[in-house]
Design a protein that fits this description.
This is Acid phosphatase. InterPro entries: DUF212 (IPR003832). Keywords: Membrane, Transmembrane, Transmembrane helix. With 163 residues, the protein is mostly helical. The protein has one domain. The protein contains 5 helices and no strands. The radius of gyration is 22 Å and the shape is elongated. The two termini are 28 Å apart.
Amino acid sequence: MNKGVYLALFSIGLAQGVKIPIHYFKKKEWRPDLFFGTGGMPSSHSAGVSTLTTYIALQRGLTTFDFALSLVYGLIVMYDAQGVRRQTGELTLKVNSMNDLIEKIQKEESLEYKQEAPKKLKEMLGHQPEEVVGGAVLGVLVGIIGHLCTKKDRKLSKFKLRF
């Protein structure tokens, strides 16, 4: 596997890990399960694609096909993260609140109605625009740091070859 893939996967993991302390500082609630969840600040989708795009830009250049492909793919992923997935999450909130309303109505009726309560749908699916930007900034930073580390590796390997 190449370093771009390693860096992108590292960036995704880092973004997922950072969600826990950010959530704690905002809500004063410790939730380690957020590491495996979707949504929240920063967007790990944005972090991953931004890391890869930045790394490719710095390693291969802005005029390469690799960079163009990664950039377009990254923009689609980020748009989807804050567009379609966010709308799905908002719709899920409404469905869950309707379910609560139906339960209240059923409790007030005198007829006995037995139905298993459906599982609540997952509400945190998508991202707010600032969460996407936060992930993108994190991704660019990881991409730059990864490039700088790789640059040092290249210099060391060239130095070793000379002797």
